[in-house]
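Ticket #4471: structure output looks truncated?

Reporter: J.K.
Steps to reproduce: submitted the chain below (189 residues) through the standard prediction queue, then opened the result file.
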Amino acid sequence: MVVIVALALGLAFALQAWVVKPYKIPSGSMEPTLDVGQRVLVNRFIYHLEEPQIGDIVVFHPPEGAEAGVQCGAEVSPGEACPKPTPGESGQTFIKRIVAVGGDTLSVKEGHPVVNGVEKTDEPYINPCGSSPICNLPKTIRIPKGYFFMMGDNRGASDDSRYWGPVPKAWLIGEAFFTYWPPDRIGTL
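Returned output as attached by the reporter:
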C-alpha cells in the first residue's frame, strides 16, 4: 500500500512539473475572460512542440521587478510601450494574452494592439481601455526575436508588457487551456 501511494504521489508531482499544472487567477487584469479566484489548467508541455501564437493565454514569469512596479529595462519616450524588459526573471507568475511575437512591430490604439501596422479591433473578449495613458501608445516598437508581448484583457487596468516589456520564450511556463473553478465557469479557453 505504501508503494502504491508513493507511486501515485510521484506521478501527480511529475504531471504538475512537466505536463499540466493548476493556477489560481490573482488579479482582475484578465477580466472578463478570467475572474479573480478562478482556476485554470496550464499545459506546460505544449511550447516544447510548437511556438506560442498571438491570442494564446499564457502563464509566465515576468521580468524582475514587474511585481513591484519597476517599469522598463530601457529608456521609454512618451507614447511608447516598453521595448525591453529588465534582464532578470521574476519568481512570480503572471497570466496574460500574447498580442505580438518576435519580429513584429507594435503600437497601441485605444487599448488595441496595432501589429505590423494592422489594428486588431476584433477582440470581443476585452474590457474597453478607457482613458488611461497606457491605452494609446502611438510610437512603434519592434519585438525582439524570441520574445512575446503580453497584454491583459482588462486593458485599462492591466500591468503588462506595455510597462515592463516583452518576455523571452524561456520565461513562459505554458498555455492556459481549461478553467475548472468555479463550476459555472468550467470550460475551455
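Triage note (M.O.): checked the attachment and the full C-alpha cell line is present. The chain is about 15% helix and 30% strand.
Status: closed, working as intended.
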